[in-house]
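A brief tutorial aside. Many learners find it easier to grasp structure tokens once they have seen a single protein encoded end to end. The record that follows does exactly this for ADF-H domain-containing protein. Read the sequence first, then the structure, and try to relate runs of similar tokens to stretches of the chain.
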Amino acid sequence: MTVAKNPEIANAYEDVRDDKTATNWLLLEYESDKKDDLKLSKTGEGGLQEFVKELKPDQAAFGYIRVPISNDELSQRTKFVLVCWCGPKVKVMRKAKLGIHKTEVKNVIRTFSIELMGSDIHDFDEKEVVLRLKKAGGANYDRQSSNY
């Protein structure tokens, strides 16, 4: 696995983290079914909704997303999400190695508020993700999401 040695992945990670760039997500995919090496597949500017459209049912992949959240106009902040995707049609051996590979990915993608595991695109509902980010962020003064 060559995640830590891949400067393209490290640069994309820093680009997503940088609030001055429009890039707000990245997708890491396996180079092939037979190899465990990950490559930077795509980056984008359309947030979680755009990212989810890139996930395939026969694919295992990792993602990193910058999500702006706020309780009001005075409390704007940025949170980050690490995504581990394992589509419903992923082969058994790939599923078996996914946990080990996630550890390698975390050596490069180190800063995130929450980690999401998913095997269905509905696992990434934007409202639910934002609510989880708010919960992970500590104090929440938003009356609309005080049901936690």
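Self-check: The beta strands are 25-30, 38-44, 60-70, 76-86, 114-118. If you spotted this yourself, you are ready for the next section.
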